[in-house]
Amino acid sequence: MLINTRHFGEINLDESKVIYFDNGILGFEEYKKYTLLFDDEKGERPDISWLQSLDEPALAIPVVSPFLVKPDYNPEVEDELLKSLGELTEDNIVVMVSVTIPTDVEKISANLKAPFILNSDSKKGAQLIIENSDYEVKFRFYEQLKARKAAKEGK
Predict the structure, then answer these.
(1) What is the CATH classification number for the domain harbouring 95?
(2) Residue 74: CB partners within 8 Å, gap ≥ 6?
(3) Which residues have CB under 8 Å from 38's CB, separation 6+?
(4) To the nearest 10°, the Cα dihedral for 33, 30, 130, 64?
(5) How many CB atoms lie within 10 A of CB 74?
(6) Residues 126, 78: Cα–Cα separation, whole Å
(7) Separation between Cα atoms, residue 58 and residue 131, nearest integer Å
């Protein structure tokens, strides 16, 4: 299927890559269909991907694995909130958090308070609000990215 995006132009998307958010996402409850986009020219998935709305071409949210920015990320979530996603296992659960990239890149932050939980088997997703006060809406992680890059280059 062909989709139009504001930031990436027209893309030919396999129907199996569509993720359904029954309740939409925060602030965009009316948009239910999304996909994850990333630049794979190098043959590997980059750290930052884009949660692209298929209902609104201008809506693309940069997302990252929370474990990249906070390796011990382990929010407590009521099972009831995840029921609509189907059976979640270690193999099919994907957790992403939105990223804010300001002009001053050193102030890059991730929203650890409202993760996106995806079931890669059922192609269903949900955005949840984590009640645990350990997680911030604007968790700055520039230093973690720098350290990770240095570690990769040191290999």
Answers:
(1) 2.30.290.10
(2) none
(3) 45, 46, 48, 49, 50
(4) 40
(5) 12
(6) 13
(7) 30
Domain total of the chain: 1
User: Digits of tens for pLDDT over the chain (155 positions)?
Assistant: 888 888 888 888 989 999 999 999 999 999 999 999 986 655 566 788 999 999 999 999 999 999 988 999 998 888 888 999 999 999 999 999 999 989 998 999 999 999 999 999 999 999 999 988 789 999 998 888 788 778 877 75
And the tokens for 38?
A: 């990333």
Give this prediction's pTM: 0.88
Q: Which domain holds residue 41?
A: 2-153
d(CA 22, CA 24) in angstroms, rounded, equals 6
Q: Which tokens hold the place of 43?
A: 């043959």
With a CB cutoff of 8 Å and minimum separation 6, the contacts of 71 are none
